[in-house]
Amino acid sequence: MYSQYSEGRCPCVKPPNRQRGFAKCEDVEIPLSPYSIIFLKIFSLLASIYCLNIYYDQVTTGDLMHVAFLAYYILILRSVVSFTELCTEDIFSDLRILTDYATQVLVIPSLTTELWMKKEVAPFEVAVLPVSLGCLAFIFFIAMEYKRRDITDLVVLLNLIFMVLANLNGEGALLFSLGAYIIFASAYVCTKRHCGDNVKLDDIFNAAVSTVLLITLIDFEPASFTPAPINWLLGEG
Fold first, then answer.
1. Which residues contact 71 (CB under 8 A, 6 or more apart)?
2. Distance of CA 186 to the CA centre of its chain
3. Rounded Cα gap, residues 108 and 208, in angstroms
4. Contact predicate 25/164, CB 8 Å
5. pLDDT at 101 over 80
6. Where, by residue number, does the polypeptide cross the bilayer (predicted)?
7. Could you state, in order of their start, the residue ranges of all structural domains in the chain?
8. In contact, 138 and 106? CB cutoff 8 Å
9. Which CATH number does the domain 35-233 belong to among 1.20.120, 1.20.1070, 1.20.1740, 1.10.10?
10. How confident is the model over 116-155, as pLDDT tens digits?
11. How do residues 54-94 score in pLDDT, each as one tens digit?
């Protein structure tokens, strides 16, 4: 199903006259040993579970009515599903494609919307815009069984900008938002923008997204679980 339309804008499926200047996705060599790949899978899973636990216990104190939970659930599911690649790439391939695309267009938007609500950057009707854009892109993919790379690019770009804007009021961790911006943007461009159908790159992307989740935890509730040096960087003493 989805595997037939996994990447509509990947250079390796472009017409011959548009392939110039790009390496074929299947020809990309990944200098990772099997142990490194397993480590990345385990890191992504444990990091996402840790973030969910910290967010639930120390940020929301048990309140489940927060959009950010969607980001943690998606990445946990994506990390679990990624282990099926160790058996064969044909098992659960459609589920891997769905969860991978959900990671691209829903994780950052969910965190961004939650940041906007927490910091009261905009009214609720405007604050839900980031995650709404991600949902529209995901629904389009499910309905059409096709990834529009231009739509994905728009969702990623706007949400990364929104994430930084959430901290421009001087109350948040702008330094860490910029770090998250750079990590996610680099991972997206390098592993998804040009070679979205290469499953060998998925673990690198998942690990990068897990790192972004760890960084944004600081943005949600810095004082409750960060050491003194980070509080000093945040200007809190």
1. 106, 107, 108, 110, 111, 213
2. 12
3. 12
4. no
5. yes
6. 32-52, 64-83, 126-144, 151-168
7. 35-233
8. yes
9. 1.20.1070
10. 888 888 888 888 999 999 999 999 999 987 778 888 999 9
11. 888 888 877 788 899 999 999 999 999 999 888 766 778 88
Q: How far apart are CA 204 and CA 223, in angstroms?
A: 30
HSE-up of 7 (CA within 13 Å, CB side)?
A: 19
* Rounded Cα–Cα distance for residues 204 and 209 (Å): 9
Distances in Å between the alpha carbon of 91 and those of 20, 168, 177?
33, 45, 37
Structure tokens at 128: 């839900």
Q: Is the CA virtual torsion 16, 27, 44, 41 positive or negative? A: positive
- Cβ atoms 231, 222 nearer than 8 A: yes
Unique residue bearing structure tokens 């948040």: 172
Report if pTM > 0.85.
Answer: no
Cα separations (Å) of 117 from 47, 58, 134, 154, 233? 24, 17, 17, 22, 23
- DSSP notation for 32-60: --HHHHHHHHHHHHHHHHHHHHHIIIIIS
pLDDT exceeds cutoff 80 at 187: yes
Per the CB < 8 A criterion, the answer to whether 195 and 10 are in contact is: yes
Query: Hey, is 67 helix, strand or coil?
Result: coil
Distances in Å between the Cα of 51 and the Cα atoms of 3, 74, 91, 96, 118 are 30, 12, 28, 22, 17
